[in-house]
Design a protein that fits this description.
heterodimer; A: two-stranded antiparallel ribbon; elongated; B: Neuraminidase; four-stranded antiparallel beta sheet; 24 strands
Chain lengths: ~200, ~300
């Protein structure tokens, strides 16, 4: 009995293997593509930190603590078109802290010091109230805790700072761990990248 | 001195039935009648609180004032409409450059003073609508610092203007020619006599004895200062909806104060009461609780 496989058998086995590999590859690609088209995003009309009407309460920090990433994919974003460029921004300063010698609050609000404040335009170095200010969020520090978002919201501020899921950072989990714990059910799965 | 809530207008319900979307401005004439503007409607109330008359406006009014002839001026976006006492349109001022968003109107000695949010200043016109000069544009910021989007002011009997400069946390005094005379007020989140938040006070009116009545947002409060800027009285935030912003205020001849609750769409009327032992206001009474230590020092 000849136990050596014939050339035909070798070719058959190779073709079968190649077929299985191709099917597996297509399946993985399809699954990946399906996931890539789906993004998580925050519904501003539901998020406690963003939505109007929810004032005088502590900020919800679930986005900062529940993302699977070491630094949450949710970050604060300042909309410059809406920002009032205030001297005393309630999202930057802790407006419940004492007054310093310069007439400004003595403490910042962000526990990670993730907001930078800089005078812009024609600057008066002697009177801080006589300048406009730009507030830039340092995304390498921001963890999306939402303290600044809650503090900047109307009527205290103009609501220029909001929370967003950063698509370039989000790994698009099938079941977002933030969505699972969000008390307001504010994380939605959308096709925002377009199919 | 203290102020007590005498009544709400209209009374009897949480939400107003007169306005559905917004109550923007109020004023009181010499006879004590209250003028209220909101949505696309003007309502005039007798001193007793009963409605005297009302009429519709073409656009949403943002402020209302009455001149010595009894004409009713309604400020809006890009225009001022002037009505007679019964609501008939007398004339309409339109000025694309100088009437952007009109949030306050006042009169003095033949001049019409207009608060323009777009220009961040007070504009002086004569009665025919001819522009004379701007007030409040002289500083480095070239206008009032108003992230809250509202210019409010009042004119003293001697023609001196008292104006809010909210993001500077000041009440400023100007001449009609635009010269800044002085100011009072400073930022402070811990004591009631200071102005908290990003931008307060937002609205202002003058009492018959020269008292300066202001309103604040976040938390909403009404405060009364004397001419020198010393706090005389304040009404805490528990009477207003916490979402109120830019609450217009007006003072009648007898010292009665009207404040708009912009969230519940109604007007609150406060009556002055003399206290037996007048003295300084307890600045710790409405103390804002500090947040626990741990914030970052700037």
């Amino acid at each position: 009995m000849n136990e050596d496989p014939s050339r035909r058998d070798v070719l058959k086995t190779a073709a079968r293997g190649a077929g299985l590999l191709a099917i597996g590859g297509v399946a993985v690609t399809l699954v990946r593509r399906a996931g890539a088209d789906q993004d998580w995003e925050i519904d501003p009309s539901k998020c406690l930190n963003i939505r109007l009407g929810a004032v005088g309460m502590a900020a919800c920090e679930e986005c900062a603590t529940n993302c699977v990433l070491p630094l949450s994919a949710v970050r604060a974003v300042n909309d410059y078109a809406k920002c009032g460029r205030c001297c005393i921004c309630p999202g930057y300063f802790d407006v419940k802290s004492d007054t310093g010698k310069d007439g400004l609050p003595t403490r910042k609000l962000c526990p990670r010091d993730a907001i930078k404040r800089e005078a812009i335009g024609e600057i008066d170095p002697y009177d801080p109230l006589n300048n406009f200010y730009e507030y830039v969020i340092d995304e390498s520090k921001c963890n999306g805790c939402g303290l600044c978002v809650m503090a900047c919201k109307e009527p205290a501020g103009l609501g220029s700072i909001r929370l967003e899921v950063r698509y370039d950072l989000c790994v698009a989990c099938n079941r977002c761990s933030i969505a699972k714990v969000c008390p307001e059910d504010a994380l939605l799965r959308t096709n925002s990248r377009g199919a | 001195m203290r102020y007590e809530l005498a009544k709400t207008i209209p009374s009897g319900s949480i939400a107003s039935t007169w306005f559905r979307e917004a109550v923007r401005g109020i004023s009181v004439d010499d006879a004590g009648a209250l003028y209220v503007v909101g949505d696309k409607r003007v309502i005039i109330l007798e001193p007793s609180g009963e409605m005297r008359t009302s009429w519709s406006t073409e656009v949403e009014g943002l402020c209302v004032a009455t001149d010595a002839k009894g004409q009713v001026y309604v400020g809006a976006r890009g225009r001022i409409d002037v009505f007679d006492k019964k609501g008939g349109l007398v004339k309409s001022w339109r000025d694309a450059e100088r009437l952007g968003i009109v949030t306050q109107i006042a009169f003095y000695d033949g001049w019409v003073l207009v608060g323009d949010v777009t220009g961040r200043c007070i504009r002086r016109f004569d009665e025919s609508g001819t522009w004379k000069n701007d007030i409040g544009t002289g500083g480095r910021l070239r206008g009032f610092f108003i992230p809250n989007g509202h210019v409010d002011f009042a004119v003293q009997a001697d023609g001196i203007i008292r104006a809010c400069n909210p993001a500077k946390h000041r009440v400023e005094r100007y001449t009609l020619d635009g010269e800044l005379l002085d100011h009072f007020g400073k930022w402070g989140g811990r004591h009631v006599e200071d102005f908290p938040g990003c931008c307060n006070p937002t609205n202002l009116a003058l009492g018959p004895t020269g008292h300066v009545v202001v309103t604040e947002k976040a938390p909403p409060r009404m405060k009364v200062y004397d001419d020198a800027g010393r706090l005389l009285a304040h009404v805490g935030s528990d009477l207003f909806d916490p979402n109120c912003k830019n609450m217009d205020v007006a003072v009648g001849r007898e010292g009665r104060i009207y404040v708009v609750d912009t969230a519940r769409l109604r007007v609150l009327q406060f009556e002055p009461r003399e206290v037996e032992s007048p003295g300084s206001v307890d600045s710790t009474k409405d103390l804002i609780e500090p947040t626990p230590a741990g914030g970052v020092t700037p």
